[in-house]
Every structure is written in C-alpha cells, then in structure tokens.
Amino acid sequence: MKAFKKPQINRQDALNSKPLKNRDVQESLLETGEVLLSYPVRVRPWAASLIKRFGGSSHGTRNKKLQLDTLGTAVWKLIDGNRSVRDVIRVFSEQHQLHPREAEVAVTQFLRELGKRGLIGLK
C-alpha cells in the first residue's frame, strides 16, 4: 500500500498564496490584547469510548483552545484572505522592525503550525 504524499509547492508559490482563517475557528480578544482561538478537533473512536467511560460526552468532536502570544496575534490579525503570505511577512517585518528574512522564517513557521492544526488554509 502506497502512502499518500502531500503535493509540494515551491517557495515562490507558497509566498504568493493567500492564507484564509478556518470558519470554524472562534477568536476572542483577551484583556492583554492577545487572541484566544477555540477550534473543534475530531476525537478518535478509541478516545471517545474512553471519554464516555469516564463520564464525558461521547460526541465526535471536542473544542481545543490556543492562546496566541503578541507576535502570533499580530500575524493572526494580518490574515484576511486578501494578503498573500509575502504581504503578511512584509507588514509583520515593518511593524516589528525585523530583517525581512527573519520575519519570513518566523511567519512561515507560525503559518505552517496553524495549518497543521487546521486553523488556516491557503488559496
């Protein structure tokens, strides 16, 4: 059986893509100015049965929360579906007086993590 490989995109295509927030993600602004994200995750069947056994709800999804730090909040606020990854990096770099390459590494790593969690997609 062959393993499914995700299609790889080159650096230029990745930088030109536009990140979109998942509609199922709820965001709250904390008093600190940071953003708290709440998002649904699927519970695997074996975990659902274990949760049910210990008196929890047995439905197939649970909500997780992720509190973004100041820099993560800044990037999250720049994701509007219109800006490309390149534009997000440029604005982030200017806002925080970072070298463009340093900003690129930080922002792309953060976006990759958000993507792994299903919080954003790219178009």
Descriptive account of the structure:
With 123 residues, the chain is α+β, with helices and mostly antiparallel strands. The protein has one domain: Arc Repressor Mutant, subunit A, CATH 1.10.10. It contains five helices and five strands; from the N terminus they run αβββαβαααβ. A hairpin with a 5-residue loop joins strand 2 and strand 3.
Structural class: alpha+beta
User: What is the percentage of strand-forming residues?
Assistant: 15-25%
How far from one another are the termini? 30 Å
Helix coverage percent: 40-55%
How is the topology of this model organized?
Elements: H1 11-16, E1 19-21, E2 26-29, E3 35-42, H2 45-53, E4 61-67, H3 70-78, H4 85-95, H5 100-116, E5 120-122
Antiparallel strand pairs: 1-5, 2-3, 3-4
Highlighted features:
5 helices, single chain, two-stranded antiparallel sheet, Arc Repressor Mutant, subunit A, alpha+beta, 20% strand
Characterize this entry briefly.
This protein is an alpha+beta fold and 123 residues long. 42% of the residues lie in helices and 20% in strands.
